[in-house]
Amino acid sequence: MRFLVSVVFFVSVVLFFGVNISPEQLSYAGLVPVLIPVFLLINFILLIILILLKRKLLVLPIVAILLGWRFIGVTLTWNTPADGEGLSVMSYNAHMFSYEKYKADDPKVTPNIYNWIREQNTDIIGIQEFYQDNTTPSRNAIKLIGKEGNYHCSAHSVEERKGKRFFGLAIFSKYPIINEGKLFDNRKTNGAMFVDLKIQRDTIRVYNVHLESMSIPADQLDNIDGIKENYRETWRRLNRGVVSRASQVDVLAEHIKNSPHPSILMGDFNDVPYSYTYFTIRSILKNTFENAGKGFGFTFNKVLFFLRIDNIFYHPSLRPLRFNTLREVDYSDHYPIKAVFDMDPLIDRVPAP
């Protein structure tokens, strides 16, 4: 028992501090922290056993649980939603608006996903895997979602060219866009952009990101057998993605630190909460799921349903009222997430002219 408890304690401590190690510095380090929930559970079980046995050795799982307590809050929350109106924000990986599914159909048919996004009447919308087709009115996403001018829009391609059709990221806002920019892209599928929005007397910066994907083919994610059969290649792909995200999140974090305005960061992070990616951002911004959500908040709509890889982070000067994962909306392989912020702290932060 002493050997078992000691080994579990040692591995737990290594895991708990592993999220602070960049995968760029230590190969495969970014894959190890996914075991954190498992070892937290093991420590709880060992604690119960040692209490029943009345062994002093119970101090080790107690210390391990205390060290890993922060990971419980990023896994499961039970906040009470606050009433009231405020600044509504939604992030959605729209999976190209199911373009592959609809492109063989009548081009005059508008997919329901456009209607659903428009009907939400959200103040700020960040879309990843955004697909714009300027040649077909029924798939002109900027016009369809923008309500023919009711929204301001900034869209960036992650491809080399931005032609009549392009793939990338977009932010729709009811508030004027006074500045915009792109942080990085890999000219393939992923990237990061930002806009500065004029909201009453203040300006906020909104980031929309789609960090490096796990790069596992969709047909493998549709069934667990596909992952098992190709586990070695899957492992290598996962590690390449982790390393790429570490580089991207360092650039992102530095940009946020230098922002002249309070920031809201939303998007598809393609990484679990027990990661260098998540805790790098968490060290400078707060997370809406942790402070206003309820339950586990899973956002992935595939066989690996237990993943929470989409997030909305925010500057401490803001206060979230509510956060929801809209699991009833299944147009994409991700569920949309939505948060509402109390505007008073932001307004009070800036003195009246």
From TrEMBL:
Mind listing the UniProt keywords for this protein, alphabetically? Answer: Endonuclease, Exonuclease, Hydrolase, Membrane, Nuclease, Transmembrane, Transmembrane helix
Q: Kindly indicate whether the keyword Transmembrane helix belongs to this entry.
A: yes
GO CC annotations?
Answer: membrane
UniProt GO molecular function: endonuclease activity; exonuclease activity
GO:BP terms for this protein?
GPI anchor biosynthetic process
The reply to whether Transmembrane helix figures as a keyword in the UniProt entry is yes
Q: Where are the transmembrane segments?
A: 28-50, 57-78
CDD domains, sorted: EEP-2 (cd09084)
Residue span, Endonuclease/exonuclease/phosphatase domain: 90-334
Protein name per its UniProtKB record: Endonuclease/exonuclease/phosphatase family protein
Please give the organism.
Echinicola soli
